[in-house]
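[agent] plan:
  1. take the single chain provided in the ticket
  2. run structure prediction with default settings
  3. attach structure tokens to the ticket
  4. add a short note for the reviewer (M.T.)
[agent] executing step 1
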Amino acid sequence: MSLTFLCLAAVAVDGDTLRCQGIGRVRIARIDSPELHRCPPRRRCAPGDPRAAHDNLTQLIAGKTVRCREVDANPMRRGYQARDRYGRPVAECEAGGRDLGKAQLRGGFAIRWP
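[agent] step 2 finished; step 3 output follows
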């Protein structure tokens, strides 16, 4: 059973993460966008312009209600993962009838993950 919730007062933290009032950070499922800050050593980070990814997500949610549905944080691991390794819920989110993850992918602002 997956939890569906509204992401109130949604703010884009970067190209693949939202901050929701009362919930905190929510990772958008199945995408990875470029890091706003330096890519950590020994990690393969998504290519591209991190500021453009952030700005596009900001535009996608501007003035819209954001609805999210929690999903398995890491489908590559056995069993349901309620949170990612940073403790964030992972969710498929939409705003204005548009799936945010798919919109970031189509616009070239993110890559598929995993």
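[agent] step 4 note for reviewer: The helical segments are 50-61, 100-106.
[agent] ticket updated
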